[in-house]
Design a protein that fits this description.
By secondary structure, this protein is α/β, with parallel strands linked by helices. The protein has helices spanning about 1-20, 45-50, 70-75, 75-80, 85-95, 100-110, 115-130, 145-155, 200-210, 220-225, 260-265, 280-285, 320-330, 375-385, 400-420, 430-440, 440-445, 450-460, 465-490, 500-505, 535-550, and strands spanning about 140, 170-175, 215-220, 235, 240, 270-275, 290-295, 315-320, 360-365, 390, 490-495, 510-520, 525-530. The strands form two sheets. Strands 1-3-2-6-8-7-12-13-11-9-10 form an eleven-stranded mixed β-sheet, sandwiched between helices. The protein has a two-stranded antiparallel ribbon with strand order 4-5. The longest helix is centred in the C-terminal third of the chain and has 26 residues, at about 465-490.
Length: about 550
């Protein structure tokens, strides 16, 4: 009977899934459903952090004043009640730190179902976020239909077809909460967008078409970290302060895709989507010992993503391996005629995970890292495996008008987003009304101030003046890197973490960061490769080899 039912409805289910339609209603549970959270007074922890030698760790608060965590997992009360602690420990070995390939193998072998996979992640999120000594505040919302969708995908799979090992079919993905997903608010971490229920962003629609399960939304540095000055990365009014699983009170999470980075590191999902204007994928990826790809602006659509600057913004994949980054990137690829930054070409932008030797690849090594043992070890490994290392004396500069460019574009582009994409329930329509909204309750809405919003309101640039500034700065950045690559005859520039992010952003050069080790106190460090526009495949080819050579990544001890 069950098989007949499955065959009868398989076509309809598949069509609904490909369209991103949720066929079955979620059970309704009260948002007040109480789970085992003991009272937590953060005053003692904040006092401890106030003594931290790194002033960026001097947090004003940890937990959000508006997010009720029990409401996150309340829709899953029945599923969580059936899912035992023993189930959790039995499945850990199949899921924790496993690649998409390994998870799909487990599903195809019958050892794991997509429903179990999703339930495991939700159970794990509830388990850790309810622990006052382990929570990391990396999740803003969970998709109440995630388990239903997993069941539907299991039904399709049981008809006899196996998902390819490099497929996102049935794989839970987290979206940074500036990326639209129907059914969940897209907040950018800001209370002004608390009720911003929008349509799917173009990349979210592509993920659904590939059979991915959007598990929920990840916390972020509010307004993608272009909001306040001297404020910690990873803070938002909606989600609170994101903490680093490698050292909750020791290391920052990097920004602005902080929740995406911390969540994947802590195994809250298989992979996550971040976004970058200047360093916002590279920084949290390296800070959380992940692989992160900042693509060329124009490789992936930004339609439906809350913007900073349309000339520089891009979304991108964050994962625990190069292979998973490739899988996630490929699932988001597609031509979007609404995105004016996408090139007017029909070339296939998908990437290949392949074995390409490093022989004769010319890599530029920066002399400024002569005393960095991790960097020197990485460069030596590359050299020992036939890469040609070219020593380069280069210091990446940051133009003093870079913030003015971002501010001018955000003032323009945010207004356009609010007009074209935001929900009718959103009460702001510009950076001016955003400033006024926050000023009515700065303690709740902007405890670190909103200096960059103030700056945007005061910018007096015509559209012609803004375009002139953009052309000048992007021309300057591209000219510097083009000349550097040409004069030194290099194919790839090798850096650390997000140190060269600003110049790469202006030049529209893509970058890939990969874990290369941990400092004496356990802080993750990443090696970052940078190449000219639309040469992501070269990044992947070099990254595949380096990842195999270094084999540096280890999961955070307290989250294994």
């Amino acid at each position: 009977m069950k098989l007949k039912y499955m065959k009868k409805h398989a076509t309809a289910l598949l069509i609904q899934l490909l369209l991103g339609v949720h066929a079955l209603p979620s059970p309704a549970f009260s948002a007040e459903t109480e789970l085992n959270i003991t009272f937590y007074d953060e005053a003692e922890d904040l006092a401890f952090l106030a003594q931290h030698e790194n002033e960026s760790m001097h947090f004003k608060l940890l937990n959000s004043k508006v997010l009720n965590k029990t409401a996150l997992w309340a829709p899953f009360e029945q599923a969580l009640a059936r899912f035992t602690e023993q189930d959790y420990f039995d499945l850990k070995q199949l899921i924790i730190d496993r690649s998409i390939n390994e998870i799909q193998q487990a599903v195809n072998s019958g050892s794991l179902s997509y429903e179990e996979l999703v339930t495991f992640y939700i159970y794990r999120i509830q388990r850790i976020e309810s622990d006052n000594n382990r929570f990391i505040n990396s999740i803003i919302s969970l998709n109440p239909d995630a388990i239903n969708r997993a069941r539907q995908l299991d039904e399709i799979r049981q008809l006899g077809s196996e998902a390819p090992l490099d497929s996102l079919f049935g794989i839970p993905v987290l979206l940074k909460d500036n990326i639209g997903f129907a059914g969940l608010p897209t907040t950018a971490g800001a209370l002004a967008l608390e009720n911003n229920f929008t349509a799917n962003a173009f990349v979210a629609e592509r993920l659904l078409e590939k059979g991915a399960i959007v598990l929920g939304k990840a916390n972020l540095s509010e307004w993608a970290y272009f909001f306040c000055t001297n404020c910690p990365s990873g803070y938002s009014a909606m989600g609170g302060q994101t903490l680093n699983p490698y050292g909750r009170f020791e290391f920052g999470t990097g920004g602005s895709s902080s929740g995406s980075g911390a969540s994947v590191a802590a195994n809250y999902a298989a992979v996550a989507v971040g976004s970058e204007t200047s360093g916002s994928i590279l920084s949290p990826s390296s800070a959380n010992s992940l692989v992160g790809l900042k693509p060329t602006t124009g490789s992936l659509s930004r339609t439906g993503v809350v913007p900073i600057a349309s000339s520089l913004d891009t979304v991108g994949p964050m994962a625990r391996s190069v292979a998973d980054v490739v899988t996630l990137f490929n699932a988001m690829v597609g031509y979007d005629q609404q995105d004016i930054s996408m090139p007017l070409i029909s070339a296939d932008m998908r990437l290949s995970y392949r074995e390409i030797a490093l022989a004769d690849k010319r890599l530029g090594a920066l002399e400024s890292y002569a005393d960095n043992n991790f960097y020197q070890n990485a460069v030596s490994l590359l050299s020992e495996n036939a890469a040609v290392i070219v020593d380069i004396d280069f210091q990446a500069e940051r133009d003093s008008r870079f913030s003015e460019l971002l501010g001018g574009e955000m003032a323009r582009d945010l207004g356009r987003y609010l007009e074209q994409h935001s929900s009718s329930q959103v009460g702001i329509d510009s950076v001016i009304s955003l400033k006024e909204f926050n000023n009515r309750d700065l303690g709740l809405r902007a405890p670190y101030g909103q200096a960059l919003i103030d700056m945007m309101v005061e910018i007096n640039l015509s559209e012609e003046g803004l375009e002139g500034l953009r052309a000048e700065l992007q021309g300057w950045g591209r000219g510097i890197l083009d000349q550097l690559f040409y004069e030194n005859n290099i194919e790839v520039l090798v850096g650390v973490n997000n140190h060269q992010a600003s110049i790469a952003a202006l030049a529209n050069y893509p970058a890939l960061t990969i874990p290369m080790g941990y400092s004496g106190n356990g802080q993750p460090i990443g090696l970052t490769f940078i190449v000219p526009s639309f040469q992501e495949q070269l990044l992947i080819d070099v990254g595949v080899q380096f990842e195999k050579l270094i084999q540096a990544r280890q999961g955070p001890v307290n989250y294994r």
